[in-house]
Amino acid sequence: MTIDGVAASGKSSVASGVARALGIPYVSSGLLYRAATQLGREAGVRLGDAAALLTHLRARPLRLEALPEGNRVWQGERDLTDELHSSQVDAGVSVVAALPEVRAWVDDQLRALPAPFVAEGRDMGTNVFPQARAKFYLTASARVRAERRSQERPEDVDAVEAALIERDRRDAGQSAPAPDAHVIDTGPLTLEGVIETILQVLPTPTA
Ligand SMILES: Nc1ncnc2c1ncn2[C@@H]1O[C@H](COP(=O)(O)OP(=O)(O)OP(=O)(O)O)[C@@H](O)[C@H]1O
Ligand SMILES: Nc1ccn([C@@H]2O[C@H](COP(=O)(O)O)[C@@H](O)[C@H]2O)c(=O)n1
């Protein structure tokens, strides 16, 4: 199944909860875009330079570890995960994610993972796993999302809201609900409420 949605709509928290209830892993595609961005920044590669970025990424392959409590990204023995949710990465990641070559690099890694799993991101239901048996798309107002996200960032809520709106604008080309997705406004719901809503509409597995 797939869970897509706008920035900070609750995708990874919800995917983790749903996956745990189902006893399967979840995979956070955004982490791979974030890792590509962070590694490009570190190496001084211009973020819009797909060829230079991919040469750099292919020389040091990444591994996405689909832990139920939170995915982690490794490069060899180095765990990059805790560096990937900074405001600097937030600000650069949409440039990297707009590159078709980087999208193909991420999609290949996701499609190589052993099923079943819950995939979360922007285009999981539309592009990467169009055959998924259940698809969800999470939304909430920018203000609600900023109030939640500002608990996790040093910036104030207005600055967080402006950054979320800008990231949504830049991501709009690859972030849309699949025609067969259930769209859920998480604004009035608790995290547990969103997870429960999804579990209730999941189709029963057929024999
Ligand atoms: N329904 C909800 N009610 C209250 N808080 C929520 C809800 N959903 C998510 N949150 C909180 O909002 C914050 C953002 O959630 P999360 O990181 O899961 O979003 P995301 O869509 O994966 O974000 P990003 O797009 O930046 O990766 C977290 O602090 C999470 O606990
Ligand atoms: N399927 C996806 C997932 C992510 N992106 C890009 O990565 C950024 C970070 O993703 P988060 O889920 O961690 O917010 C996001 O802003 C997109 O630019 C994507 O393009 N496709």
Automatic annotation (TrEMBL):
It is an enzyme of class 2 (transferase). InterPro entries: Cytidylate_kinase_dom (IPR011994), P-loop_NTPase (IPR027417). The keyword ATP-binding applies. CDD domains: CMPK (cd02020). Its EC number is 2.7.4.25. Keywords: ATP-binding, Kinase, Nucleotide-binding, Transferase. Residues 2-202 form the Cytidylate kinase domain. The keyword Transferase applies. GO terms for molecular function: ATP binding; CMP kinase activity; dCMP kinase activity. It catalyses: CMP + ATP = CDP + ADP; dCMP + ATP = dCDP + ADP. This is (d)CMP kinase. It comes from Deinococcus hopiensis KR-140. The lineage of its organism: Bacteria, Thermotogati, Deinococcota, Deinococci, Deinococcales.
